[in-house]
Amino acid sequence: MLSEAERRLKEALREVQEYVQLVGALLRVAVTGPHYRRDVILQLEAIGIGSLMVISLTGFFTGAALALQTGQTLDRFGARTLVGQLVSASMIRELGPVLTALILAGRVGSGIAAELGSMAVTDQINALRALGTDPLRKLVAPRVLATTLMAPVLTVIADTFAIVAGWIISVTSLGVGTSTYWNAVLDGLYLGDAWQGTIKPFVLGFVIGTIGCHVGLRTRGGTQGVGRATTNAVVVASVLVIAVDFFLTPLLMRVLY
Amino acid sequence: MTFATARSPQLEKALGPGSPIIVFDRVSLAFDDKVVLRDISFTLIRGHTKIFLGASGSGKSTILKLIVGLLRPDSGVIWVNGERVDDKSEAELMKVRTDLGMVFQEGALFDSLTVAENVGYKLLEDGLSEERVWGRVMEVLGFIGLAEFADRMPSELSGGQRRRVAIARAMSYKPRILLYDEATTGLDPITADTVDDEIIKLRDLEEISSVIVTHQLRDAFRIATHEAVRADNRIRVIPADPKKADEAEFIMLKDGGIHFEGNAAELRASTDEYLRSFLS
Lengths: 257, 280
What we know:
- By secondary structure, chain A is an all-alpha fold.
- Chain A has helices at 4-31, 37-76, 83-121, 124-130, 135-174, 178-187, 191-217, 222-256.
- In chain A, 88% of the residues lie in helices and 0% in strands.
- Chain B has helices at residues 9-14, 60-68, 90-97, 115-119, 121-125, 130-143, 159-171, 189-205, 217-225, 242-245, 264-269, 273-279, and strands spanning 20-31, 34-45, 49-53, 75-80, 83-84, 100-103, 177-181, 209-213, 226-231, 234-239, 248-254, 257-262.
């Protein structure tokens, strides 16, 4: 008999193994047919358009708060005019991708886990397989593709709203002129920043989609199980987003600058 | 019109009437430490019915999942319709599944699709023209008497209607084997009878081989001892003659093994204590 600790370790290892298998199978599915184009478009809309509002608001308020906070700090060095540079650089390189991914983990990751989870506990996934449809192609691939493609788009939108919010705060409460702000925004940006700001969300979007699907598909135990799966998907995806970002940042810095 | 895969005439003849369509040979399965099935062997003859009885957790539903290939046995061999399914990959199983229809517990209808889309799901996936698909869908929904519900969502249906739609979905692509997982559990006796009659009609009029899993003895006996006949353009379900009733075999599972195997009369006459407690 296995001890409690051994059993848990075995369970955790099995979960990681299943996740890796899912990612491997997804790559196979990507290169062989059939593909469900209609489902991809539906998911792009649900995930992309559906998240537009919450992502815009997040970007806007983050940019505004960032401008207010950094304005004060920069004052100590007499560098208040550089507020645009600070807002744009920190949003595009770091905050934009991470915050967008965290919001997507909460909104989309949970939604995917809940949807696939309730399909799993009501035997709908098995019914799909019995009807000759591969759930990986029909359900998982469109969702992962949509999160992977939409995360960068939504990140750019969040960045834009943040920089505009920073401009509004700079002009209204920091007394920094419009042209000073925008010049600083452009001066502070390197091409590498733009690349970093778009490559990161690709990876983070993939993580959110695959975790949501993985957790959803292995849901057991009725409606309670669906609740647990939803929470797990958000927690795991959020922690992974921050961890993956941490490991990705030095890697991208080495490659891109 | 058949949607199943074409075969050579020789194979078709070898698999003709009286031939086995599902064979289990010493099949065992365990989840972690829990043994679900132990050395299960049985044969289902084409056009016949196999009824699995047993308490909850006795491994009845697992047998259906093994037939469809949703689960894989730890040991033993399973033949379905002339193909081994226990060692096939998911992609290869898709071909075997074109000849298998499964009615899941509670129906397992797709919530996001209408009744008609649920029933026509596989036909659309197989790339049939919309016209043929909707024609067949209405034909099947007419057969189970739910044509007027075609545009409803599954959530708007009653429990009995959902099971019947699930049967319609499973029969839409004309599989030669239908598997029913607790198709009548939780239904009132009158509604259960309508579901039973669909099963009887499909077996006797469409020549479908059936595997039925249930713990509702009443429904099991009804299916075993009735037959459907077509007379004057009407379909009636009447008590079957003894020879026909013999084509339905009961298997009682207990603790993962086969506890009893025989026809309805033998089951009724049994003096075994466990069986008696189940029958009473």
